[in-house]
Amino acid sequence: TDFVAVSTPVFVVRTPEDFVELNRLRKPDPETGRPDMERLGAWLGEHPEALPAIQHTLGRDLPASYAQIAYNGLHAYRWVNADGEARFVRFGWQPEAGEATISDEEAREGGPDYLQEEIVRRIEGRPVAFRLVVRLAEEGDPIDDPTAAWPDEREAVEVGRLEVTGQEEER
Q: Which of 73, 92, 94, 155 has the lowest CB atom count within 10 Å?
């Protein structure tokens, strides 16, 4: 099983087609070397559901480490218990090392690959671990819209643990 997760609490688009279009619009113009902000702005005007993810990304501090940032699943999944009762859940990976950020200046000092370099050094000394936590949906929670957050007070259950013990070297 593959778990796809992002560091924002919600995803930026609702559909695969919107994701393709947004990435096409973000591509730099060959003449200016920058995206066409007018076209991007028009797209955002037509897709207000994207604003929470974008605002979260632009408004937060930089992560100190890949090992110290929470990751959130994009979708809701229908889980069935031993009694045959079903609930929708959304999963997240919570870092056992806690969450930590650094300033822009510290990130610049670390260089453009500071996150990759830091995680390699970190796992040489000991494994990096994350707790797999699922939040249980309640009546009315959107189960088919990754741009819509569920309330923070939803019941959360720890269901697993992931340990990163080294770099993947067989790709």
A: 155
**What sign has the CA pseudo-torsion 95, 96, 99, 100?**
negative
Tokens linked to 136: 């249980």
Question: What is the DSSP secondary structure assignment for residue 29, as one 8-state letter?
Answer: P
Query: d(Cα 20, Cα 168) in Å, to the nearest integer?
Result: 28
The closest alpha carbon to 117, from 167, 61, 46, belongs to: 167
8-state DSSP, 9:
S
Residue 140, CA distances (Å) to 78, 105, 124, 136, 144 in order: 15, 43, 45, 12, 11
- Tell me the pLDDT tens digit for each residue of 119-168: 999 999 899 999 999 999 999 999 999 999 999 999 999 999 999 998 88
CB 60 within 8 A of CB 115: no
Both ends of the chain: CA-CA distance in Å? Answer: 17
Q: Tell me: the pLDDT tens digits for 27-51?
A: 999 999 999 999 999 999 999 999 9
Tell me which residue of 98, 118, 97, 96 sits closest to 107, measured CA to CA: 118
3-state SS class at 130: strand
74/6 Cα distance (integer angstroms): 7
